[in-house]
Amino acid sequence: MKLENISYLREIYGSRLQENILLSVYTSARVGGPADAAIIVRSGDELAEVTMRMWEKEIPFIIIGGGSNILVSDKGIRELLIINRARSVQYDEKSENPHLRVESGTSMNDLAQKAALLGLGGLEWAATVPGSLGGAIYGNAGAFKGEMAGNLVSVDLIKPKIGYQSWPVEKMEYAYRSSILKREHQAVVILSAELSVNISSTQAVRGKMDQNSTIRRNTQPQGASMGSIFKNPPGDYAGRLIESAGLKGKRIGNAEISTVHANFIVNQGSSCANDVKELIEIAKQEVASKSGIELELEIELVGEW
Q1: Do 77 and 100 lie in a common domain?
Q2: What is the mean pLDDT of residues 199-205?
């Protein structure tokens, strides 16, 4: 990061500014190099203030929530790292149609658990999804036949020079694990969202969540990973294709293509991002060679490569 930008951030944010932190602490795969500067935001208002200020001063930034679905390079990032911990969840019991108003830094599991406590159904699928709401909205996360497109009513966001906007779900142009924001890499920050739910009971919701959790434990690896590496191609499964290519258990350093589910790469201890990236390239090449199918990344690469 430019020295003048660091100086400005120190002047504005003082002790809130962290310098030279390792992203491996903040990513679900536990890999990633240093960030020159980082700041934690704990509300939607703080998130809006910081990002609008950075746009105004032309200081590049990257936002992370739970740190899943991304692979951060070993060289790290030179942009300001904004760590989103805006986690308010509100429910209007008087509303005719039950909705939750949720800030974008809320983890998907916490969201599902809070809905369960309120006896609200419809988000049971989210309990097994890593990461935060902002990332889930951006990438149309899903599991167990549920996905963000099915729950999102509207999303509040900000854009440079434009400011606040509220988008109905239709404007997101959702597709499988994709949205217009992700496809076009738009400069936008997701602040919060309104989500549809249904009246149920805590017991019923927790029962379904427990079933989903059991299935996930039996079919997906435990430990540090980014989640699914590749999108499933039409009519097939990325994990099946990688397994058919003979790559289950393939290891480089301490990064391993999972022996439980081949569409996961697990950090078996002090792995580096380059090892994970090499496994990704091997999987793409071998699947293309053996099946003729070009796998498409579900995760995103972040930092200097």
Answers
A1: no
A2: 96
E strands, the chain, in order: 18-22, 34-41, 61-64, 70-72, 77-84, 89-91, 99-103, 120-121, 142-143, 146-147, 152-159, 163-168, 189-196, 198-199, 224-225, 251-252, 255-257, 265-267, 300-302
- Residue in 68, 104, 107, 177 annotated catalytic: 177
Residue 283 sits in which domain range? 221-302
Residue 97 has pLDDT above 90, yes or no: no
Predicted confidence (pLDDT) per residue in 111-142, tens digit: 999 999 999 999 999 998 988 999 999 999 99
Q: Tell me the per-residue pLDDT of 245-266, one tens digit each, with 9 for 90 and over.
A: 999 999 999 999 999 999 999 9
Q: Which residue in the list 194, 256, 286, 298 is annotated as catalytic?
A: 298
Q: Which of 24, 225, 228, 271 is catalytic?
A: 228
Q: Verify whether residue 177 is a known catalytic residue.
A: yes
CATH code (residue 277): 3.90.78.10
pTM, entire model: 0.92
